[in-house]
Write a structure and sequence with these properties.
Elements (H helix, E strand, L loop, with lengths): L4 E5 L5 H11 L4 E5 L3 H7 L14 H8 L4 E4 L2 H7 L2 E4 L19 H13 L4 E5 L7 H12 L5 E5 L9 H6 L4 E5 L3 H14 L8 E5 H32 L3 H9 L20 H14 L3 H28 L8 E5 L14 H11 L3 E5 L5 H10 L5 H7 E3 L3 H5 L4 E4 L11 H7 L5 E4 L6 H7 L2 E4 L3
Parallel strand pairs: 1-2, 1-4, 2-3, 4-5, 5-6, 7-8, 9-10, 9-12, 10-11, 12-13, 13-14
Bound molecules: uridine-5'-diphosphate-xylopyranose (UDX) and adenosine-5'-diphosphate.
């Protein structure tokens, strides 16, 4: 089966970049990305390619090249489903906020809606690909809906989890460590797998394309994220011990990272991991383990989240304690709001929780993030439902540049590791602040010695 038309449901952080790269690498395949959110689709279609809704280094150039040629963004979901041979499902799967599994299980209502829509529209055989991170055995549920509500056509369900990290999405997609495709062991299943393998083979080496059964593929995605997050919680746990003992967590990370069995990546102590995946996927894993009665397994992985929550809270506590046990009416400048650099995504960003804690203490927060606007910051805080929206708006605002953000501040907190923070004129910032001037470096990116020479009281994570 030769694929010539692909449809992707969901034009978000996964669907958008992934389809843009597939379209760029496969000019012979027509790729249509659809979304219910017409504002988002309009932004993807904006004449000025710099206005696409997702900020990712290199992405606008890829979109520029392929859009209108073989890459299309549309709100006409049914037409795109009807025409495509392969349908990727890339819709959001947030953690449930209600009912059974609340706060733990993935909310699959958007996935189910997609499956029902595909079943309704499809008039010929389709390959349906799970791209969003999903709990193990979701493919089975999708298949059941498709087979029982469809028009009698055949569906093959593949799991093809996305491993891209935001901020490096384009290069991750162009040079993936591996492409993982899970499918049925039947002859039809194998044919579907091969059809998708052939798409990726346009730019990925065969030895980097891995095929498995559906469940292994689904579980591998959760496991990869759990392992990555676990490394961060492990080094963050040690960062607290370093602060007590006089060890330096950066030195410890370097020393252990040189052991080739451990490796040096993902050992950066921080204010805590964020992003749409780590917490959600671990909670998913915990929920699945519990549902099979595997309580020790569930507890083991849940500790990664508990540690991460502790790390965020510890950071805000440290700010309050250091500022003489009160931040009430004090100006705290936040540099960074995104959950990591080079993205405008703020989902689960540590900044949200630290800000929430400090607002509980009546602090006034001013934020500067090169890619995040006040509207998003406020909606992130309101989403926590800690207090009235007017009260959030009273306590937090943002400025368009770092220098005005820091003016008259009692303290600066670094929440995101944006490169530009390292290049600032820190003497100028110091001169404009209240004294003593504090910096809490939640990302360990600044030169602490230099800042201390200027006169700052500098506190990093884990030293
Ligand atoms: C992650 C996985 O890396 C990716 O493979 C998967 O597809 C989706 O989830 P993402 O969340 O986009 O990607 O970014 P990632 O680079 O993993 O960072 C996640 C969080 O961990 C960020 O808040 C980051 O700042 C933090 N982090 C990362 C650390 O605190 N220390 C580290 O050493 C690495
Ligand atoms: P991710 O990080 O997984 O890509 P996003 O929230 O950025 O998550 O993107 C998911 C997108 O899926 C959103 O733009 C949302 O509007 C879209 N979406 C959700 N359900 C449907 C649906 N049934 N049909 C079309 N689009 C949908």
């Amino acid at each position: 089966m030769k694929i010539t038309k692909i449809c992707c449901i969901g034009a978000g952080y996964v669907g958008g970049p992934t389809m843009a790269v597939i379209a760029q690498k496969c000019p012979h395949i027509q790729v249509t990305v659809v979304d219910l959110n017409s504002e988002r689709i309009a932004a993807w279609n904006d004449d000025d390619v710099n206005n696409i809704p997702i900020y990712e280094p290199g992405l606008s150039a890829v979109v520029q090249e392929a859009r209108g040629r073989n890459l299309f963004f549309s709100t006409d979901v049914e037409k795109a489903i009807d025409e495509a041979q392969v349908i990727f499902i890339s819709v959001n799967t947030p953690t449930k906020t209600y009912g059974k599994g609340k706060g733990m299980a993935a909310d699959l209502k958007y996935i189910e809606l997609c499956a029902r829509q595909i079943a309704k529209v499809a008039k010929d055989n389709k390959i349906v690909v799970e791209k969003s991170t999903l709990p193990v055995r979701t493919a089975e549920a999708i298949k059941s809906i498709l087979d029982n509500t469809g028009n009698g056509v055949q569906f093959q369900i593949l799991s093809n989890p996305e491993f891209l990290a935001e901020g490096t999405a384009v290069s991750d997609l162009m040079h993936p460590d591996r492409i993982l495709i899970g499918g049925d062991t039947t002859e039809e299943g194998q044919k579907a797998i091969q059809a998708l393998v052939d798409v990726y083979a346009n730019w990925v080496q065969p030895e980097n394309i891995l095929t498995t059964n559906v469940w292994s593929s689904e579980l591998s995605k959760l496991t990869a994220n759990a392992f990555l997050a676990q490394r961060i919680s492990s080094i963050n746990a040690l960062s607290e011990l370093c602060e007590k003992t006089g060890a330096d967590v950066n030195e410890v990370a370097k020393a252990i990272g040189m052991d080739s069995r451990i490796g040096s990546k993902f050992l950066k102590a921080s204010v805590g991991f964020g992003g749409s995946c780590f917490q959600k996927d671990i909670l998913n894993l915990v929920y699945i383990a519990k549902s099979y009665g595997l309580n020790e397994v569930a507890d083991y992985w849940e500790q990664v989240i508990i540690m991460n929550d502790h790390q965020k809270r510890r950071f805000s506590n440290r700010i309050v304690q250091t500022l003489y046990n009160t931040v009430a009416d004090k100006k705290i400048a936040f540099l960074g709001w995104a959950f990591k650099k080079d993205t405008n995504d703020t989902r689960e960003s540590a900044a949200i929780y630290v800000a929430n804690d400090l607002i509980n203490e009546e602090a006034n927060i001013v934020v500067y993030d090169p890619k995040v606007a006040l509207k998003k910051i406020l909606s992130d805080l309101d989403y926590l439902e800690t207090r009235e929206a007017v009260s959030n708006a009273k306590h937090i605002t943002s400025f368009p540049d770092a220098y005005s953000t820091c003016e008259n501040a009692h303290a600066i907190a670094i929440l995101t590791e944006w490169d530009e923070f390292k290049t600032y004129d820190w003497q100028k910032i110091y001169d404009s602040m209240q004294k003593p001037a504090f910096i809490f470096d939640g990302r360990n990116i600044l030169d602490g010695e230099k800042l201390k020479e200027i006169g700052f009281i500098y506190q990093a994570i884990g030293s």
